[in-house]
Amino acid sequence: MNKFCCIFFYEGYVGVAPTVINLAKSLSAQKYSVTIYATKNDYPQIDLANDNINIIYFLKGYDIPTINNFYNLLYKNNIFTGVIPIIEIIIFIFQSLLYSFKNYRLITPQKSFNIGIDTNGSILALIHNYIFKSKFAYLSLEITSLSHYRKLSRLLKFIEYIAYRKAECIIIQDKDRFTSLCKYNHYQHPNVFYLPNSSSINDSRSSLVNQDNNYFRNIFNLSQKDFSTLIIQAGMICDEVYSQELASAFSSINNGVALIFHERQKKSLQDPYIKTLTEINSANLFLSLDPLPYEEIDKVFASVTIGLAFYRNIDNNFSQIAKASGKLSFYLKHGRPVLVNNIESLSTLVEKYKIGVVINNPSDPIEIESAIKTILDNYSFYSKNAKACFAQEFDFASQVNPLLSLICK
Prior knowledge:
Structural class: alpha/beta
Largest sheet: 7 strands, parallel
Number of helices: 18
Distance between the termini: 15 Å
Mean pLDDT: 93
Strand order of the largest sheet: 3-2-1-4-5-6-7
Strand content: 15-25%
């Protein structure tokens, strides 16, 4: 094995990022030695060593007492807070370059192809390009405009513009998000590959799921008699995904339905937001606050009846979410019909493939209850369509091949 790929992922949540995990595995299968440069975080971690993938977790400034105290001073006096993201990327660059120099084989330009994720990752990939002449791709997980950056931190966005133009190609989930990304970065990149935030149909982990498809019934002691229908919203628990509205609406639905919120990051029942949810709905809301490692995540989706994918229309990063929603892809992979709110990217997919029902008002228990009944009355139809939709639109193994052809040529 003499080919190398560095994936620069400042945000660092590798263990809950299907695109990063499966892209790294795909490159490893092509005889690449893959190193993921990440930062320490509280999300579940994943061990990919068996796939010849090494993950290096660097410290953020927040993890270094002296620097964190300096940040607190800036926050306390409300001055120069825009400089903090710049300090953070400098710390990330310093640590990653030090590691690269110690492992020079990772940066041999004739044998390497790097991937920079979003703003900070692409900046580091650009620096490697200038210093070591390594080609790189720009991978977009989140799309953000200049307006998201405060004062001095806008400098990072301007450097990202350069990285975006310099990249050999862009990797993003679909055409709509690519259009927005080009607009935000003021450049129509000529070379783009579309890669959904998903896994593969033939993922070896899926066969293990059939041994434990009662995951939530077991941990919450949910009998078939009392709760015949398990409905889940996986991922974030927050207002951005209508958590309070859904908790309230489901509290009025009493026909054997359980609503489950499953977090991707460990939370406590004493968390103020979580306590608010339990006050809103103490009847049929169940909170799964201990995230599973990626190797076991299929249990979550195999053990429910219907999946929820609700996203508030905050900006294009949320509204153009269909191919970027990891939970949606996993619902479909396991043949779970879905309920989604009425934003164009979600409603278009649902109506095209008949994989569920679009909800106009997430706060309306009557509308939601009617939608649940529609699905349950013809469950095999929607489940079959869900699997077909996954195979056509989300199967990572088939979608990644064009990109691999470029990287591995």
